[in-house]
Design goal:
Oligomer: heterodimer
Helix content of chain A: under 10%
Distance between the termini of chain A: 80 Å
Shape of chain A: elongated
Radius of gyration of chain B: 37 Å
Order of helices and strands of chain A: EEEHEEHEEEEEEEEEHEEEEH
Mean pLDDT of chain B: 81
Structural class of chain B: mainly beta
Shape of chain B: elongated
Largest sheet of chain A: 6 strands, antiparallel, barrel
Number of strands of chain A: 18
Radius of gyration of chain A: 32 Å
Low-confidence stretches of chain B: none
Largest sheet of chain B: 5 strands, antiparallel
Strand order of the largest sheet of chain A: 7-8-12-10-9-13
Structural class of chain A: mainly beta
Mean pLDDT of chain A: 88
Largest interface: A-B, 112 and 105 residues
Number of strands of chain B: 12
Strand order of the largest sheet of chain B: 7-11-10-9-8
Strand content of chain A: over 45%
Distance between the termini of chain B: 36 Å
Number of helices of chain B: 3
Helix content of chain B: under 10%
Chain lengths: 300, 291
């Protein structure tokens, strides 16, 4: 058993099913409207790398984000947020264990969880998940209770049992039972900080909505600036092949694969009365002249 | 949260090839591009991957391959300790409040000096779900019917403490048996856990050992959930500074044997001499000493 400080950073091997991805787009940095986030399906855009020695084994850490060009093919700024998937549900009950009255916990109904996520609520699977709380009262502006979270330290299917307290009083506690559809979770910290020593250990209230999030990886934000030029394209202008058609004045710059990169019309502006040359103009041509193919021109 | 900035040049994804098939002669006899030709993508980034002739590339299933801008990233998980929480004695404020502030909420208020524990109670709520039929046997009669099957007699209290607690059948019909466990004898309807076990409905399950099991489908129901005087108390807990970064309290394990090196000809005998119980065999398993 470890008794000293320890911590580590490990390559994440999170399943795509435990990931959420959102993006926002602004054409420039001066935009003043609110950021609009749009979800992306991780199954379509995030591909984990496989171990070269065993293709059925995830390599760990290395993922490829395949951004669809129909969305990301525009010039501007894309913010992409990759974060652990959130599960929203309602606390079914808050109570204690029948045999351990000082162990408080929150209870979830596994049947309220979407089918594809129910296996996360099997015994022990929620350990390390983070619980965040939504406000019980409405109309307070922000629905989420900010800066409040708890970490689940254990979860087990549990059955409510009654505790007879005498004088017609009764309360419910929980006992572990693997066939129950209720899941009893202990959370931490369930205690107050030392500067508020007698604050109650709030862990939630029955019927309160919560957001349960895995902690399988640290969220990542990518700011991707889509640009039209870089060193390579500037090098086309300097070092790549070029042609100037003397017949029609079309000046063509090719990329390093000899494909037409840009075309310009070269012409002079002269004084209409005296014929005196005033300007030499290079104007970009947007309708490409295909007869200026470099291989065709130099094939003689 | 990791923050990564990248600059990607769209030119790398822009089509610059002009297939011969999109070239036509105009009215002046000059070769121009037919910009309406579906294979003409010059200067654009197509939605699906295409070859230099403007044809869609297909995967092994004959489907078009979505065009994408690929970004490699390395995702990590950082693990840190949270420390050990420790109970602390405290003296409560003596002038306790008598009325709960309007809209009092324990988590938005946090600590409210002088607030009694009742302020944190929550009303009873209904809880329901599915479970197995293991508790049905607790409410059966000692008698059997002519077929040797169990008999469930309504209102027969089968608890050990019949003065205070009611465990027994509420009603029974051809479909299901409804019974209560742990109800107060003076208020059976509003206390205890109500179970409804269906007679001909079964739930199948694979247990943790991979074995198929089944039991009669049972619904549990109670209206006694929530925070109340029986499960809520005010307490003071804090983190001990010396334990910050430590997740477990230090434990002393005495099963330590100091290896004196391979030169010691009595090493193996000395190791064996340490083993006195079956637990010690576990400790020394594989020739290694657990520390």
């Amino acid at each position: 058993m470890a008794t000293g400080n320890y911590g580590t950073i490990r390559p994440a091997d999170v399943s795509i099913n435990d990931v959420e991805i959102f993006y926002s787009y602004t054409p420039n940095r001066e935009l003043i409207t609110d950021v609009q986030l749009t979800p992306l399906d991780p199954a379509e855009v995030l591909i984990p790398a496989s171990n070269p020695n065993n293709t059925n084994e995830i390599f760990g850490g290395l993922y490829t984000l395949k951004l669809p060009t129909n969305v990301f093919g525009a010039k501007g700024f894309f913010n992409i947020i990759i974060r652990p998937r959130q599960i929203r549900t309602t606390i079914q009950d808050c109570s204690v264990l029948i045999d351990n009255q000082d162990v408080k916990g929150i209870v979830f109904n596994i049947n309220q969880i979407p089918l594809d996520l129910q296996n996360r609520f099997e015994n022990g699977n929620l350990v390390g998940y983070r619980v965040e709380y939504l406000k019980e009262e409405t109309g307070t502006g922000q629905d989420k209770i900010q800066n409040l979270f708890r970490i689940i330290t254990s979860n087990n299917r549990a059955l409510p049992v009654t505790q007879n307290q005498g004088n017609s009083n009764a309360s419910v506690a929980y006992t572990f039972n693997d066939n129950s559809t209720s899941v009893f979770c202990t959370v931490s910290p369930s205690s107050a900080p030392s500067i508020k020593p007698n604050a109650i250990p709030f862990i939630g209230n029955p019927q309160q909505e919560v957001i349960i999030t895995n902690t399988f990886f640290d969220p990542v934000m990518l700011e991707i600036e889509m640009v039209e030029f870089d060193d390579e394209t500037l090098a086309y202008a300097l070092f790549s092949n070029q042609t100037k058609s003397l017949e029609d004045g079309i000046y063509t710059i090719y990329n390093f694969g000899n494909q037409i990169y840009r075309q310009y019309n070269l012409y002079e502006v002269k004084d209409q009365f005296t014929g005196k040359p005033l300007f030499e103009v290079r104007e970009q041509k947007f309708t490409i002249d295909p007869t200026k193919d470099f291989d065709d021109i130099t094939d003689f | 949260m990791k923050y990564i900035r990248k600059k990607i040049n769209l030119e790398n994804f822009t089509i610059r090839s002009i297939p011969k098939s999109v070239l036509i002669k105009n009215s002046e006899g000059k070769t121009v591009i037919d910009e309406n030709n579906p294979k003409y993508y010059y200067g654009r980034i197509p939605e699906y991957k295409i070859d230099s002739e403007g044809n869609f590339k297909l995967n092994s299933f004959g489907q078009k391959i979505p065009n994408s801008i690929d970004v490699s990233l390395f995702i990590t998980q950082k693990l840190d300790d949270m420390g050990i929480f420790t109970d602390n004695p405290y003296t409560a404020k003596t002038d306790t409040l008598s009325t709960k502030p309007q809209g009092f909420n324990s988590f938005t208020y946090g600590r409210l000096a002088g607030a009694p524990v009742e302020f944190y109670y929550k009303d009873n709520i209904n809880i329901t779900g599915y479970t197995d039929d293991s508790l049905l046997s607790q409410v059966k009669s000692y008698r059997k019917d002519v077929s040797g099957d169990d008999i469930y007699v309504p209102n027969l209290n089968t608890s050990d403490d019949t003065t205070n607690i009611f465990n027994g059948v509420i009603s029974e019909d051809v479909e299901k048996t409804i019974y209560k466990i742990g109800a107060n004898v003076n208020d059976i309807n509003n206390t205890g856990i109500k179970y409804s076990t269906f007679k001909n409905k079964y739930t199948k399950k694979v247990d943790e050992f991979g074995k198929n099991t089944s039991y009669k489908t049972t619904i549990f129901e109670t209206g006694n959930g929530g925070w109340n005087e029986f499960n809520t108390s005010l307490s003071a807990t804090t983190k001990k500074e010396e334990y910050l970064g430590i997740v477990f309290k230090p434990e002393v394990d005495s099963a330590v044997f100091i290896n004196r090196g391979i030169a010691d000809i009595f090493e193996r005998h000395a190791l064996l001499s340490e083993i006195k119980t079956t637990n010690d065999i576990d400790t020394n398993r594989g020739g290694f000493i657990r520390i």
